[in-house]
Amino acid sequence: MIQWYPGHMAKSKKEIISNLKLVDVLYEVVDARIPVSSRNPDIDDIAKNKKRLILLNKADLADDEVTSLWIQYFKQKGIAAVKINSITGMGIKEIMDTTKQVCKEILDKKQQKGMMPRLRVMIVGVPNVGKSTLINKLIGSKRAKTGDKPGVTRALHWIKTPNFDLLDTPGILWPKFDDEKVGVMLALTGAIKDEILDIEELAIQLIEILKKYYANYLMSRYKIDKIIEDNFEILKEIGRKRSCLISGGEVDTLKASQILIEEFRSGKLGRISLERP
């Protein structure tokens, strides 16, 4: 069981709940590769009847067919979902169009009252899903702090964009991962600091998923002739192919693990989704 709930996250949750009444719609940013594990399970309860959009970020790294299945999955639950890439700006126009559709009733009411048809949006997400990068794309500048380290944003603040007013929130996670798989998924995608989990164990878990869905990527990327049952032996084979050797010709499995995980995270291994609906 992984315990990881810094004090500022508990405070963020309270602030999000108290500020939700100020906004018309909630944007929930998730990692397209792990749309379940990168969602905060508290959000469904927190958002209740609030209009909502799920933004499947890093969609350029995810398996496109699987992402389409996720969009259908959320649609069946009554939540609109849009695939995006916050770095390139892919999907930004679709966010705007979908927001207008989802909030049509709210916009019409504002116009009837003679108010500016301008929406107030709250943006939420677990650490390191690319929330700050997305905000910078939405506002066309670099006002939101960004970084590879999880948990860069620490306070709530309003940001004006050309289309709406945005309330940014710190990344929040839940008090514990009831399912160990969730911790593994978050660690593989870099949402949890690498120091918390064993890198070799993570690599073994990644190999297990790759064997099931993307064996061809493993074989072509690391010139592996055949996929065997023993995941640790596959890891050693990756190490041999990448010359991760230490004295006596032993394989440096730690270095091999780091290479595998980095090449998955960067997309060099291929477009991979770790979760399916």
Automatic annotation (TrEMBL):
GO molecular function, one term: GTP binding
PROSITE patterns in the record: G_CP (PS51721)
Cited CDD domains: YlqF (cd01856)
CP-type G domain ranges (all copies): 11-175
UniProt xrefs under Pfam families: MMR_HSR1
Binding locations of GTP: N57, K58, A59, D60, N85, S86, N128, V129, G130, K131, S132, T133, G171
GO cellular component: cytoplasm
Record keywords: Cytoplasm, GTP-binding, Hydrolase, Nucleotide-binding, RNA-binding
A biological process from GO: translation
UniProt-annotated location(s): Cytoplasm
Main subcellular location of this protein, as a coarse class: cytoplasm
Domain of life: Bacteria
Family note: Belongs to the TRAFAC class YlqF/YawG GTPase family. MTG1 subfamily.
NCBIfam families in alphabetical order: GTPase_YlqF
Protein task: Required for a late step of 50S ribosomal subunit assembly. Has GTPase activity.
Protein name stated in the entry: Ribosome biogenesis GTPase A
Organism: Thermoanaerobacter kivui (Acetogenium kivui)
